[in-house]
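Archive transcription. Copying these from loose printouts into the bound notebook so they stop getting lost. Printout 1 of 2:
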Amino acid sequence: MPDSHDRSEAEGDQDILPGRRAVLEALRAGRPLRKVLLTRAAHGGTIRAILQEAKQHDIFVQFVDERRLDHLAQGAHHQGAIALTSAKSLVSVDEILASARHRNQAPFVLVVEGVEDPANLGALIRTADGAGVHGIIIPRHRAVGLTPTVARTSAGALEHLPVAQVTNISRALDALKDARLWVVGADPAASTVHYDMRLLPPVALVLGGEGRGLSRLVRERCDALVRLPMRGRLSSLNVSVAGGILLYEVVRQLHTQSTVEAPP
């Protein structure tokens, strides 16, 4: 059965690259790719070359049932190989931190653990750019990648905001903490309301996916957890809305700090 993440990312987005040779040449050319899908029965020299190039370029390779590729290819001759393209080249976590240092600013990072809806990720990218975030970190697995829909929903912000895609979000948080960032996760069960927490850079805000929220391991990696005050019947907000509130709380606190510290 087709994976829901790949189906939602592919259909209507025109981001499928089918065929062994097409996938291999895209890898060799350094084209931005989210992942490569191969059938479990795929073998031969071209497949070996795809695996070698994917490893060299740090592109995730997943072995799947042939029916899944048939579904994604929608009639195109895939030869047991499909690449899912990315709307933008990715960067490393270190490059995001270096971008902040280059501006002589304390790092302000958004980490999105498992958002599946491309419209939500695009909206978060747009808001993060507006709030002055230095970069976004997203996972390689079980989450939407940088699809054309994400790019469109970001209203151009994706062109300006660095995005790192990591295999393990928990390890990425450890790296941010090693770089002296304060890591704060959003959790509806947290005891502290977001405006009662000091949210000044260097800081990384961590959001979970739709429905599931933060995973246990990611929650445990956070230095602190905050919640949004919910006064109605629902217990949480849409992730892009919640993210916007938290991002602009950082902006508000930065403004308040600069106002207080400004000379009379």
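Printout 2 of 2:
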Amino acid sequence: MRRVRYESSGGPLFLEEAPVPEPGPGELLVRTEAVGVTLPVVRKVSEAAEPIPLGGEIAGEVVAVGQGVTRFEVGERVTGLCFGHGYADFAVLREAMASPVPGTASAVDAVALVRSGLVALGVLDAARPEPGEAVLITAAASGVGHLAVQLARARGAGRVVGAVSDPAKGGFVRALGADEVIGYDALDSVEPVDCVLDAVGGELLTPAVAALVPGGRLVAYSSGGGTIQAYDLLVGAKSVIGFQMARIARGRPEWYERWRRELWRLFAEGALRPCVHGEFGLAEAAEAHEVIESRGNLGKVVLRP
């Protein structure tokens, strides 16, 4: 089979031939039809001291199952987060991380919707917005952000503000249901909001906290780091909440399953529309990474083995 790999920090990415893996106990072997490209994986290629397997969201058909698998059979279509080599013709997926793909959805729909949608729903639940409250979403045109805009609207937000790195993304974000779209340099002038869902971090954290009303909540789920001054929280009785999907998957799987059901229900009802910026072949993985690195994407970037 074909597999994308790299040998040193920063790449380059290249295709190689590799044996088809065998599923171990509790694992599925999936013929991959679509692979979601994520910012954390792109960053690890540049920053990790040692090369890592290129994993991420995958979707496709189960072609073999390991010992002890009970929820899935050969021939079923699944999606889930692959921790091994996912940029490949075949990938191994843990049964616990897999969920079925409805017959009405494509593999591309699945990788654009499920993992990013789970994060979007998770950060919304962490922020606990009341109906009618105002929500500001950074990286609003990203794979997670464009779903968070739609989900905030579907859950009754009174005002949805999208923050983007490039004003050219404004039309895309407004079409998703945002009432306002602002650049990151305008965060200090936005009308205050009740919640901020922040996927950027870094220097953006300070103006994002300042954009909160007294008692407001910021949910940080970025891998970009950053520092917040305690005094900025104290004077406005504001809160910052860290969100990590892996902890939910391990510790509260019932939340994970509830969010999955909600995502597919909203998708079936037409209330949630996953958008795909582009589809790339495995040999074009470096180009797909460049789109993410340059923050040029509108929606999800997908590989199509």
